[in-house]
Queue: 4 jobs
Job 1
Amino acid sequence: MIGSADDPCLFQGFAAFTNLLTGYRLTEALLTADEAGLFAAVGEGRSGSELCARVGWDPAYGERFLRCLCTLGLLRTQGGRYLLSDVAATYLDPASPRYQGRTLAFERRLRCSWQQLGPTLAGGRRVVGTEDKDPDTLRRAFAAYLGAMDEAARIRAVELWDALSVAEPAGTLLDLGAGSGAFAAAFLDRHPDWRAILCDLPEVVADAGLHPLPPQLTGRVRWCGCNLLTEAPSPFDDIADRSCDLVLLSNIVHCQAKEESARLLAKAASKLAEDGLLLIHDFFTETGWRGGLYDLHMMINTYNGRTYSRSELIAMAGDCGLEARRDLRMPSGSGLLVFGNG
Ligand SMILES: C[S@@+](CC[C@H](N)C(=O)[O-])C[C@H]1O[C@@H](n2cnc3c(N)ncnc32)[C@H](O)[C@@H]1O
């Protein structure tokens, strides 16, 4: 969004034009450095010539690239050696617990699907990934998707549970579209007397490799395989109505069209305890240029997913008897709407 209040320097004046025009160069620099194994090669610090030799770059050209990566905030220099910046050490070094390797791999796939923006707009429907896939290809695609979601979820879960302090000493968290279970795992870690029910598609729940929770949590977690968009009987029906103190919908309302998301919200609301809280954590339409691009990401890569505005979600939740209590913005750009029974 030109002139976004979020990023006044990024989107003002002639800089707006040049930044939009050349934004791809940032991605290319990041992915090229990662692909070459540069961030792993830096270790405790190396000279430019050492690094170039390790990753297979011409010493003169490679050194220019290393200097550029310093200007991008990915490397720094000290005493003639290159070192990782804090950002690179946290997210790009394979040795870091917060390494985003599967996210980088997934984004490489998305870079190809974004080339289909024009045909998607012209056709008015998804054109990417619509071909029939054999079960093995489908499983690998799903593992890549959930792996990337998991790495981001581990970071965003800390932000979310930092923003929302829960005082009740014990209770049940219901996580709908739980994916790897990273949000629930971070919550249970902070609240030792809580339990969690994690719902996802049957094929996700059945494949334990997709959600490797820490062993100390397994006794407090129950997985529930169900398609939340169908009305067919499923294990979801075994969760007692109004029995869950916290119901989380993280990055799931954007996966489908409004009518389906409204049904999903009604199902979620039916399980919420009288004085419980329902949380919608997502990328809302009004989240500046990030929200705008997220909507296109859904347009290109899903059948009918889209972003929702806060007011739309508040109205949809109102139809389920819920009232908005808080509207929070997370440090890395997502939003959190908190609802209680009205
Ligand atoms: C974008 S991921 C979000 C994962 C996690 N909640 C997060 O915030 O990172 C969406 C999740 O919802 C699940 N999901 C999508 N449609 C679903 C449905 N109809 N029923 C149950 N789960 C669904 C997907 O399998 C996936 O794990």
Job 2
Amino acid sequence: MKRTTIQQIALALVAIAALAQPLQSAPAERPNVLLVKPVILCDDNGENPARSALPKTLADQVYTRGDLEFLYLPPVQWHYGQARRGEINLDTIVKSGHANGMIVRDPRVATLLFVSAVDGMTKPLGRGLQGGNICFVNLGAPDKMHNPAERAFVVAHEIGHCLGMIHAVNDLKVPDDVPNLQGDGPFAERLAVEGLHPTQVRTLHKSPLALPRLHFSSKDEAANLICEDQWDLPLDTLTPDNLRFELGLTPATPLPNDAQERLTLIKGKYAELSTTFSKEDKEQLTLWTQRIDQLTNPQWPMISRLPWHFAKMSATFCKGKPHTRGLHIVLTDEALKRFCQNENKALEVLIHEKLHVIQRLMPHHFEAAYQNYGYESVTVPQETAHKLNFVRNPDAPLPNWAIRHDDSLLLLATSLNTKGDDFQFIERAYPIDKTSVGQALPQTTILDDFRAKFPIRVGHDHPNEVAAHTLGRLFRVEMLGEPNDLLTRIQRTTLNEAKQSFAKLLQFPDTE
Ligand SMILES: [Zn+2]
């Protein structure tokens, strides 16, 4: 009897001790993620890549109390010798990186650049932009930084600066006589769970880089997302018809001629159209994303583990069509109503849109797949796209892929045409060479063979859409068990090839 009481007391003490400890969850179960885009600087000819490492285990460990998981996108190489060798300053590198998209402008994604020298110095070091989203790391020669904890420390420490932390020695709230991520001590101890002080946890949770795995934007966030696009859709590059279409205005609606006046007016209109999700919307979307995560996690971890961020707009916005802006999937009441009537379709569309977010995060990684589909990369001057009134699809913003037909290249593009009081989409084929786009071909059947090989009905004008529609189809066949017996033999072959291709594309890179 006495022993039982002692056992009970002991158990109670263990339970109290467990309550006093912060809960330590496995990285994949944490409610926040940190998205890192690794960029490896090389010489201009692609040789001599800087030494790189993607430390995840120890970085996840030190960020345990922050409930944050590191998610690395597949590394991309940047051929820029002067930058790799530290012959130009970091500001110049950042400027070029912003211009060519190598460095992400969106403050929600960190870019981690590996170089071989910084400002002429070849010794190993890291530089993280305080409260920003850019880190430079030089791991030095292979005989340096051979301890994985040392490499993990440099990355986790510099990212810590981006997350808003300062050195412990300058931080009045963080004791600097015990090992800390921003202080001194053996690397292994600085990277221990205790290496992050509770006040540092509060700091990092204020950073835009700490992304909730599931997020529903407020009205202001939704308007901001569209008016201040950080990716590929700046408002001032939209043609008047594209603006009218997005805002739900008729083709005849006048817009101010003055650029500034027009921008103010359209920002006001976008703000009017932005709205919020109801409690029911949120519950429903939470259930659907959980179901998708469960089904896709084994084969397509990028779909399940990259965050789900949603924004809601009124039904007239872009005619209610679901699409993406930055990391967000944009939905309307109309779309949600349709989703409730057909749950499989809802899951398919959500997966389709999630792929568009992934395409935006890592465009270079899709190029080989698009070439396999039969597309070739081309450049269409913006003036030409404007003159032909091409629709600016937010998920495929540039008409930069053509298909080969006999000896020539054909650009498939959709333009906005006026039909009475409304707009209609017309897809046409234009011969294109290195420098110019020719007259649209008359309505013809020459593209039918090209279209017929894909297991999808629409979206052939851009491989971003082909990939997204195909993934949606594949999901329904492979993961929802729907039959594919209505597909032709060649379509089934295409679907099978896509299965192999997505199995590789939608994996996270190897980490240490
Ligand atoms: Zn799409």
Job 3
Amino acid sequence: MHEPIRRADFVRFVEAKLSYFSCQGCGSASYDVISEENVDGKGAPGRLAVIAFAFPGYDIADGKSADVCGLACTNCGTIRFMFRKVVTNWIAANPTR
Ligand SMILES: [Zn+2]
């Protein structure tokens, strides 16, 4: 069963792993995380995936998708993806105290 990543945990990951955020589209340093706890804006949990995303272990020909987590620039809306498994592994190794 899919367990949504808590918004607070994803924010902890981003703050621990990124030395800074600079939007690839406009250079803004302002971003927001795309929360799995509220994908539809109405509180419904969900997950993000990209199709045919070239990543080791995923064969595009299989038509599979790769689970991702996303950051969105609050200025221009450019979205930056991170491989979800890396995020969940970090959260498991760094639980909230
Ligand atoms: Zn931007």
Job 4
Amino acid sequence: MASTPLSSSQLDAMAARLHARKAQLVIQVREVDEEAAETSSRQPHVEVGDAGDQGEARIRGAIRRAEQERDMTELRQIAVALERIQQGSYGLCTDCGVVIPLARLKVQPFSERCVPCQEKFEATHPNGVRIGVSL
Ligand SMILES: [Zn+2]
């Protein structure tokens, strides 16, 4: 069983980054929830005949929900990454077991796969959420 290629100080640094990112995402997700609650409570008072504004609000809401979805996916990946730090398998590709370059982990601390495996995974999961690609 291969173990993590990172030193304990590198692992601490990655865990700190993951926790910081997690805190940020939790706030973002909560904000979308609060905004949605506010919008729906305001809905009955919307003036009839202002279809343009309503359409715009609907599109804005859809974008926010898509962003929230992406944030939730990232939160799940962060939870997995933190678990792997605990288990000592962090930094190894989950598919082929090679060491994921530290440079890649620094850009994307929750990377589960090396670049070739990630590309293969995305090619075979076309509907999967692509992290780091903006809408
Ligand atoms: Zn791999």
